[in-house]
Amino acid sequence: MSRTRILILRFSSFGDVTQCLSVVSALKKRFPQAEIHWATRQDMLPLLSGHPDLTQAWSLDKKSGFKGLISFSRALREKNFTHIYDAHNNLRTWIITSILRLFRPVEFIRRPMKRWKRFLLFRFRINKFKQPFSGQRDLLEPLYRWDIPEVAPPAPQIFSDPDSQKKATELTKIFQGNYIALAPSAAFFLKRWPQEYWAKLIEMFPNENFVLLGGPEDRFLEDIAKGFPRRTLCLAGKSDLKTSVALVEKAKALVSNDTGLLHVGEQLGKKSIALMGPAPFGFPSRPATRIMELNLACRPCSKHGQGPCINKNYHECLVGISPQSVAKELGELLR
Question: Is 72 exposed, middle or buried (0-12, 13-18, 19+ CB in 10 A)?
Answer without folding.
Answer: buried
